[in-house]
Design brief:
Length: about 400
């Protein structure tokens, strides 16, 4: 079985590493630096298992110098390209994927879309004659390869004509996992597209629920931790994925919930709309709460722009929404973020100097707490009740 993977981000790279222990995998990304790093056994993203596997395992990885070379003579061409939400069209921007289907795709290979796409996208490509499957991806950033080695499920969407290809693909992925009895579900393409969007909308709903619980407890002077522990001892609810934050964020939940809501435009709903608006309400609340705790001319310190501990990016991080709201009120802000160059940036003033940061900030906002904050804990404002990410 020969694979190629187009797009070496969190999704593409983790799959490339997973599959290449067993199969030859050709990688292609418009960012050639990323490909070269991977071939030198260095991970371009922060992920413990990817770093470990690149260093320790014999992987059958090679790079292609062009898209044409990447897609030539392969059994499966996997697409793991970005699909940002476009507010103008109220849909994911699928242009990076569309471009691939304009190139000379080998008639014998089957394309597997791993990017999150709007419902109906796979079917529209089938109608144009492409051999294409959709397989949703469920990994978490910072645990990308781990989640592929120990997947909760493997789902492949296809029509009747491509059912055998879907089964072969699912079986090839399953063979590379480290988990016994991984559930495999083969279903229609529209259903598989919906599994991805409903899964993320449910996760966002759960985050929004525990955040609203925390808003209530905070305003009423109650202990959030006690309430959540008591609620979650019910096994139907469960003691997981229940840690309050400044709002849900990261690359996927904000954009996937917006896509889901856009698809409900002609479908009666209350909950889907509420998931999206609840996240705005939560950020409004957090910003107001912070504003009420400071005096004029005081500086608000922001401890990290990242969404989770150990993350290496801050795409749609909830703290960015808090910063915007405080900036509207002309609050002076200083950000401690070692991942960006110091000085004035699009996010605000960045410092790497811990002493300057802790001296100048009158209050320090942390979406996620860290031991580093221990020495200034009386200044810290966080809603990270259980100090964990999931
Ligand atoms: N990040 C996640 O946690 C996650 C989880 C599940 C699903 N997804 C979905 O998977 C898709 C990819 O997400 P990601 O986080 O891996 O994205 P990413 O931004 O980390 O990686 C995308 C990669 O594609 C490359 N690229 C862009 N245009 C290209 C082109 N035309 N040809 C070749 N390479 C190109 C970029 O250089 C980049 O390396 C998205 O649709 C996302 O919604 C992401």
């Amino acid at each position: 079985m020969r694979f190629s993977i187009i797009g070496l981000g969190y999704v593409g790279l983790s799959l490339a590493v997973l599959l290449s222990e067993r199969y030859p995998v050709t990688i292609y990304d418009t960012n050639s630096e990323k490909m070269n790093k991977v071939l030198k056994k260095q991970s371009p993203i922060q992920d413990v298992y990817i770093e470990k596997y690149l260093k320790e395992k014999k992987l059958l990885l090679k790079k292609a110098d062009s898209l044409e070379e990447a897609v030539h003579d392969k059994d499966f061409v996997i697409l793991a390209l970005p699909t940002d939400y476009d507010v103008q069209t109220q849909s994911f921007d699928t242009s990076a994927l569309d471009e691939i289907f304009k190139t000379n795709l080998d008639g014998t290979s089957t394309v597997v879309i791993k990017s999150t796409i709007p419902p109906g996208y796979t079917q529209s490509l089938r109608e144009k004659g492409f051999r294409v499957l959709f397989s949703p991806e469920f990994l978490r950033e910072t645990h990308a390869l781990y989640d592929n080695l120990f997947p909760s499920r493997i789902i492949v969407g296809c029509d009747d004509e491509l059912k055998e290809q879907a089964q072969i693909f699912a079986e090839s992925v399953r063979e590379c996992t480290c988990k016994e009895n991984v559930p495999v579900e083969i279903m229609g393409t529209g259903e598989a597209e919906c599994v991805k969007l409903f899964s993320n909308t449910y996760l966002a709903l759960r985050v929004a629920f525990f955040n609203e619980l925390d808003t209530y407890a905070d305003l009423k002077g109650l202990d959030t931790g006690s309430i959540i522990r008591g609620v979650c001892l019910d096994p139907r609810i469960g003691n997981f994925y229940n840690n309050p934050s400044f709002g849900y964020g990261g690359y996927c939940l904000p954009k996937d919930t917006k896509q889901m809501l856009a698809n409900y435009r002609d479908v009666p709903n209350d909950i889907i709309q509420a998931v999206v608006s609840s996240n705005q309400t939560r950020k409004d609340f957090i910003a107001k709460r912070v504003y009420s705790k400071i005096q004029a001319n005081q500086t608000v310190g922001i401890y990290r722009l990242t969404m989770k501990k150990g993350s290496d990016n801050f795409r749609s991080s909830s703290i960015l929404g808090i910063i915007q709201r405080l900036q509207k009120e002309k609050v002076s802000i200083l950000i401690y973020e070692p991942l960006i160059t110091e000085g004035r940036t699009e996010y605000g003033m960045i410092t790497h100097n811990w002493n300057t940061f802790t001296r100048e900030a009158d209050i320090v906002l942390a979406n996620r707490y860290d031991e580093q904050l221990e020495r200034i804990k009386e200044k810290v404002y966080t809603r990270d009740i259980f100090q964990r990410d999931e």
